[in-house]
Amino acid sequence: MHPAHVRGSTDPAGPPAPPEPPPGPPSGRLVAWLGRFGPIAVGYAVFQALVGLLPDSLYGDTARYSLAVVSGLGTGLSVWLAGALIRARGAADGEPVGTLDGVPAPRGGRAAEPEDGATGGPGPLPGLSAASYATLTERLTVFDDPLRGRLSGWPHALDEEAQPVRPTPTGTAYGLHIVLELGVPDGRLRATDLVETLWRLRLPDGGWAARSQGAVPRPEVTALVLGALARAGADPVRLAEEAAQCADRFRRELEPAGLEMTHVVTTVLRGLLRAAPDSPALPRLREVLVDGAVTDPARLHRRCWGARLAPLGGRPVAPSPVHTAQAVVALDRAARVLGEDANAQATRQDGIRWLLSCPGPAHDGCEDLESSHETVRRPHPVDASRHEVLSVRHFAAAWVLRALLTEGARRTAADEGLEAAWQELISGAAAAVRRQQDGGIWTWDGDDLAHPMWMTYQGLSALRAHAVWMYQPGI
Hints:
The chain is mainly alpha-helical. The chain has 16 helices and eight strands. Helix 9 packs antiparallel against helix 10 and helix 15 (419-435) crosses helix 16.
């Protein structure tokens, strides 16, 4: 469905040979010279030399051979230990260290050199990004709607086969995010066309809705679209008007179901922070999110979040890594825009501590990174006997990676001596995110629409954020 990742061409002559390292001290050069032969070879050479040099009168052959064996073993062991010491000192001074599943090593180390001997080459992200852009260009849909005019964008998923495919607000908003993430390398995908399409998909009374939600605007979809439009530089006056309507509709008397869902509240909070950072609704939404945190006895009673911000039917709220990560990201962004009181800060930091206390032994495949789904149920706007059902899937590894890459997470880990765990979790999450893509397109297994636009955006965005965090000038 999408083009495979294509390796770039290489120069037949190969890269120029690296300069010879400066000579070290005489002892270091001697150890390095001996190390070329290996400890076993050096030990055997010493044994042979002593057998030939020691006199036959030295207490007989048994004593002479025993002395040669002991000397050879001692010399070989010394060479091995000296080589190990030199390698360890080189690693401490910035020599290459290992990587995890092709993802660069954490700060303080360098990724291993390519196996073919090339130096200074790019990592996997440029090729992955190019493949993502090629697939988005190939799958772009242009649809002439008799009422709304020409629409340029994408449906919900990249593998929808029905023709003609009509762009949707959700798919086009995520596609616009991806285009902005990639930097628009050429004119095949124009952000202005996507912006105009999103405005044309606006419902008659304002706002946007998912394809399965009909003609009633929903706050999470409206906030998603407004965030993408704001990021693309859309008209701020028009954005402010739509953001005000979105915030006004997102009240308990009008949206009781949405205000009880962590996913919905965090989505609206993030979208309004982009589109209307002065909105009076932002402090109220943050308070709802903070008050909805729960404590987890399994992780030292730290506060975290579940799928719901309020219990349903008396059942306790189960802690959820993906919802905790969503809350941490939303609260971190709110803190940068609005400031933060002591309660909001303590709750956000506890969520970070909860993520850092993941008990899984292998952090590139632990339970905290397992993707999940939930159902958002609302009363049907026309038939009160029915419910509007929206199935929501969560890319847990991408959300956990984004949460751990927030500035607040870095500070919390540094202040509490948890930097090693923090770096290990980041590397594991990045490896898990990258493992779920092929040719720059992310796949949700076990579903008819296996290549949702939102998943590719979240995966690509998380890996690019990780690459920015990894960047160290001069290395």
